[in-house]
Amino acid sequence: MKNTFRAALAALLALLLTIGSASAVMVDEDGYLLAGEDCKTSLPGVFAAGDCRSKGVRQLTTAVGDGAVAGLAACRWVDEHPN
């Protein structure tokens, strides 16, 4: 669990750096990150959750749900990509 947490934290930091690079992650015409219902973006290992994600509804409850989905997906991704 400790290594998974560290890897997830490293992935989060990479995401924050990646968001600054417009060409790294696909965005819609309004600048929101494009991600499927699984919160995966066009960049492997990068997930979008909440109001930064392109979607029809922007509410606290949907953002919380996105966070849970993205968090679990990120943990699975880290487990599947140990290096």
Key descriptive features of the protein:
83 residues; mainly alpha; 2 helices; globular
Overall description:
By secondary structure, the chain is an all-alpha fold. Helices cover 47% and strands 0% of the residues. It has 2 helices and no strands. Helix 1 (2-19) packs across helix 2. The chain is globular and about 35 Å long. The mean pLDDT is 79.
Brief synopsis:
The chain is an all-alpha fold and 83 residues long. The protein has helices at 2-19, 60-80.
Annotate the secondary structure layout.
Layout: H1 2-19, H2 60-80
Helix pairs in contact: 1-2
User: How many distinct helices?
Assistant: 2
Query: In percent, how much strand structure appears in the residues?
Result: under 5%
Proportion of helical residues: 40-55%
Overall number of strands? 0
Quaternary structure type = single chain
Structural class assignment: mainly alpha
Shape: globular
SSE succession: HH
How many angstroms separate the termini?
A: 15 Å
Computed Rg: 13 Å
Low-confidence stretches: none
Q: Average pLDDT, to the nearest integer?
A: 79
How does the major sheet shape up? Answer: none
